[in-house]
What we know:
Helix content: 25-40%
Structural class: alpha/beta
Strand order of the largest sheet: 3-4-2-5-1-6-7-8
Radius of gyration: 25 Å
CATH architecture of the largest domain: 3-Layer(aba) Sandwich
CATH superfamily of the largest domain: P-loop containing nucleotide triphosphate hydrolases
Number of strands: 15
Strand content: 15-25%
Largest sheet: 8 strands, mixed
Number of helices: 11
CATH topology of the largest domain: Rossmann fold
Amino acid sequence: MRTLLIMGPGGSGRTTVAAATALTAARDGIRTLVLSADRCDTLGAVLGAPTGVAPAPAAPNLTVWRPDASAAFRDDLAAFQDRAAGVLDLLGAVRLDAEEVTPLPGAEELALLRAVRDAALSERFELLVVDLPPLEQALSVLSLPEELRRYLRRLLPPERQAARALRPVLGRLAGVPMPAEWLYETASRWDVELAAVEAVLADPGTAVRLVAEPGPAGADAVRRAALGLAVRGLPVESLVASRVLPEAPADSWLTGPAAQQRKALDEWRETYDVHAAAHPGRDPRGADDLTALALPGVNPVPAPVEWPVTDGPAGNDDGRLLVWHIPLPGAVRDELGLVRRGDELVITAGPFRRIVPLPSALRRCTVDGAALRDGELRIRFAPDPRLWPREG
């Protein structure tokens, strides 16, 4: 199944583009699901078909879904209270009723990710279109599965679960209580769920369709998005330039804004497959307005983002270096940070940060240096003679 993540700054027309993309694909005979996490039914207003907490048909081959974060949060909290009943009773805690529970920050993001997982596992659809939150929030959402899995594995390592039968004995010997069975079971279930979402994001059929209004603010947003997506290793399928103004007479007040938009469009076309959506003069509503935007349903699958390891120049001791190439378009040298932690590398690029495992060959090496050239970070590694003996 193909997955298109619709991403852009707030007010750029993301939901309109998501609706138009899904409608075009559905009319091309592709079984399509469009998913939104918006609290308000903006997607339903644009499509002219209300969305709800369960997937519902909106047109032939088109299904819409707006998952209920509140219900999911209440269900999770109720399940947690049931599993932790013994601990809560011991502490004298008063349980929360479902009616008094309000979702905490992050509940909507988790509900959206679960919906993405469920949609990907379903065989009903061929295309999933996800209307993501505004740009900065969306980039955080995309990093959530990987980061949460890492936290879980550090706090409750899976290998320790092999000693379940020994935990009572270990608890007596250590003099401290061991984690309960339900805690490991919950962590294992979360790990499986997060791994499924991570698999969707890492799938070769998953890509991002950027949305931005051409101009200085839109150009800045696209640059931030490009860097954030590069850190996550997600490819950009296309860029939709929204609300493009028509050509105007020289004496019109539209001449300046139109020229500004043309400059941004020319720059974007050097890097992206750009689809210019003309300014409709009003907020698009209904199938006719969406069709008039003339957006493609799906484009060919973009090339995956690769971080290759290549042979580098000779080292100081006539040994060969290895170079890890990490594309980071728009990165600034003074805003880059690299820290090695065991077999992991902490990469910081501006406001974005990711902890990635080193390729197997580089785990036997030491970092020799790094350089940023032409939007690509090149990290040099020298074989560690203690782990990688010389030949001969």
